[in-house]
């Protein structure tokens, strides 16, 4: 019955579930390691390896090893081709998920059926759908996708939200989650108060993470190697050599989190060069990367301040790369914040399991209320009368031998979140250009319902086209070429007799699930158009069928 929590990370993944005492535990597989590298080796046409084994092979067989696939989520054109077979990002991710499920089965003797999978807060609609698709490919019922910083905050603050445990501050706590992983950076301001977790602001960069630190250091190592051995081939010119150098750089980076200096042996083209590297050098080489995270942190804090929260009580560092001492140092000196390294590798999986349990208990309480006629279909549990809710919680607690406090907490805790990107429509501007008009803005609180009126451009206009777009990049651009088209539709067959400028009312609605529903209405003609942003970039049904077949043949090799 348990809903598992899965951190499907850029570099590492983990799976967790709730123990009988209510605490989240991470499940290790046969390797005994709590996390699995998110790396897939396609060993033959139908055989694959996930995890450390694949990561080790990366050097010997780079053409068949797929890493950092999370950066490709939502890109429907991208394929990893190995042994003549093409794999989409959800398909590759599903192999990682299947491996985690096998680990969970190894730990518990039972394979998870349903899960909450985490995603970066700034993942848009397509990336979220791709994540769900990966889960479906792996045979999972994906109960929800949850933002990673919310998961981290849940794992940190769950106890603090519980009235019976007592909050550390009566008026709640504001937490900044700084999450620097292997390939992504996310910063979020979250408020924990009155049994509510509210996301106040999110910022992030999809293309920034520890791997960029490794690349900068690898470049430095290759330069030093070239200076010492001018006649030898540059290791970066050869794909196996480059992989080896990047791995050596990553190892050195890890060592420099504990030590002030280390020696890296660069062996290539029959020669070996020892390059000493200091922590100060690494910090200097990568200063622009760290600066970018600090700049994004500042703008996230500014956004939270605009929402009336200008004080942060706690800074949580998550993600493996936040172990670099330069991160805490920069936050301390530049922003005056004292960070806490909170379970950086496992907090997200644990938080996802807590959320999964909340969803599951909430579902059971709602089902109990509905069968007794105490809650209408589709209404949330908080709409039930207090006494009815109490009784239902008690019955669920008894039936499933879960402590009553745990059931109550699951039902009472609310997670409020915000929109990760702006959404709008393309409309003709005053100067006759097609430009985006934004109706939903990043950091708007969910659920959102908003509308805007546009006018037809001609008298007797028979057709109105609607193009729904999503923000790309950090800012809402005013140029049509900068946006991503999500869905298009039209109102056709409008009878003549309507003036130029006739009102077209466009309504955008987005629920907690982040799925956008758009309606347009030609007011005078009373003609509607309804669109759901099932994005143009998701995989086609034929492609999904082909991949299912391909995945059905794939066998994991241990
Ligand atoms: P994650 O995506 O959260 O699993 O983080 C993985 C990233 O954290 C990789 O880029 C690792 O190189 C990096 N990382 C892990 N441990 C350390 C460490 N001790 N010092 C610096 N970076 C680390």
Class inferred from helices and paired strands: alpha+beta
Q: How widely separated are the two ends? A: 28 Å
Indicate the CATH class of the largest domain.
Answer: Alpha Beta
Bound molecules: adenosine monophosphate
The overall pLDDT, averaged over residues, is 90
Number of strands: 28
CATH topology of the largest domain: Nucleotidyltransferase, domain 5
CATH superfamily grouping of the largest domain: ATPase, nucleotide binding domain
CATH architecture call of the largest domain: 2-Layer Sandwich
How would the global form be characterised? globular
The radius of gyration computed from the alpha-carbon positions, rounded to a whole number of angstroms, is 25 Å
Poorly predicted parts = 163-169
How much of the sequence lies in strands comes to 25-35%
**Given the structure, what is the number of helices?**
13
Note down, in words, how this protein is organized:
By secondary structure, the protein is of the alpha+beta class. The chain folds into five domains: about 5-150 and about 540-555, 2-Layer Sandwich (Nucleotidyltransferase, domain 5); about 170-205 and about 290-345, Nucleotidyltransferase, domain 5; about 210-285, Actin, Chain A, domain 4; about 355-415, no CATH class; about 425-525, Substrate Binding Domain Of DNAk, Chain A, domain 1. It is about 35% helix and about 30% strand. It contains 13 helices and 28 strands. The strands form seven sheets. Strands 1, 2, 3, 4, 10 and 11 form a six-stranded mixed sheet that branches. α8 (about 285-305) crosses α9 and α11 crosses α12 (about 405-410). The protein is globular and about 80 Å long. The model is unreliable at about 165-170 (pLDDT under 50). The structure holds adenosine monophosphate. The site of adenosine monophosphate (AMP) has 18 residues, from α5 and α6. Adenosine monophosphate binds next to α5 and α6.
């Amino acid at each position: 019955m348990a809903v598992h929590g899965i951190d499907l990370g850029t570099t590492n993944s983990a799976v967790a579930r709730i123990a009988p005492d209510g605490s989240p535990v991470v499940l290790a597989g046969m390797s005994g390691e709590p996390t699995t590298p998110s790396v897939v080796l396609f060993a033959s046409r139908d055989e694959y390896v996930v995890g450390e084994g694949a990561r080790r092979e990366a050097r010997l067989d780079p053409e068949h090893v797929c890493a950092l696939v999370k950066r490709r989520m939502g890109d429907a054109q991208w394929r990893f081709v190995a042994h003549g077979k093409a794999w989409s990002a959800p398909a590759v991710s599903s192999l990682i998920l299947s491996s985690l499920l096998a680990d969970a089965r190894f730990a518990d003797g039972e394979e998870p059926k349903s899960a909450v999978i985490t995603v970066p807060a700034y993942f848009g609609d397509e990336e979220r759908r791709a994540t769900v698709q990966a889960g479906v490919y792996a045979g999972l019922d994906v109960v929800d996708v949850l933002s990673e910083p919310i998961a981290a905050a849940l794992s940190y603050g769950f106890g603090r939200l519980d009235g019976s445990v007592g909050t550390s501050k009566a008026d709640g706590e504001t937490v900044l989650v700084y999450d620097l992983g292997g390939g992504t950076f996310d910063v979020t301001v979250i408020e924990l108060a009155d049994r509510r977790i509210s996301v106040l602001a999110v910022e992030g960069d999809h293309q920034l993470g520890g791997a960029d630190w490794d690349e900068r250091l690898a470049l430095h190592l290759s330069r030093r190697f070239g200076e010492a051995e001018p006649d030898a081939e540059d290791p970066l010119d050869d794909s196996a050599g480059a992989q080896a150098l990047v791995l050596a750089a990553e190892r050195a980076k890890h060592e420099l989190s504990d030590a002030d200096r280390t020696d890296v042996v660069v062996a290539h083209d029959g020669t070996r060069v020892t390059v000493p590297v200091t922590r100060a050098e690494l910090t200097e080489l990568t200063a622009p990367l760290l600066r970018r995270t600090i700049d994004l942190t500042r703008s996230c804090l500014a956004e939270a301040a605009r929402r009336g929260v200008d004080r942060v009580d706690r800074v949580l560092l998550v993600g493996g790369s936040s172990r670099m001492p330069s991160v805490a140092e920069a936050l301390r000196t530049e922003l005056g914040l004292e960070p806490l390294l909170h379970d950086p590798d496992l907090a997200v999986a644990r938080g996802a399991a807590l959320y999964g349990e909340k969803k599951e208990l909430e579902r059971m309480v709602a089902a109990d209320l509905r069968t007794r006629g105490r809650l209408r279909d589709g209404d949330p549990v908080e709409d039930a009368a207090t006494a009815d809710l109490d009784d239902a919680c008690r019955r669920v607690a008894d039936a499933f031998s879960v402590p009553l406090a745990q059931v109550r907490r699951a039902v009472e805790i609310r997670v409020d979140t915000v929109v990760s990107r702006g959404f709008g429509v393309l409309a003709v501007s005053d100067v006759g250009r097609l430009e985006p008009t934004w109706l939903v803005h990043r950091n708007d609180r969910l659920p959102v319902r908003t509308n805007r009126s546009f006018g037809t451009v001609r008298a007797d206009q028979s057709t109105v086209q609607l193009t729904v777009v999503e923000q790309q990049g950090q800012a809402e651009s005013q140029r049509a070429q900068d946006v991503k088209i999500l869905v298009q539709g039209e109102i056709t067959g409008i009878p003549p007799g309507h003036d130029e400028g006739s009102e077209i009312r466009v309504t955008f609605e987005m629920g907690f699930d982040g799925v956008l529903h758009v309606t347009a209405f030609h007011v005078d003609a009373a003609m509607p158009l309804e669109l759901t942003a099932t994005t143009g970039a998701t995989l086609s049904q034929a492609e999904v069928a082909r991949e299912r077949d391909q995945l059905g043949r794939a066998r994991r090799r241990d």
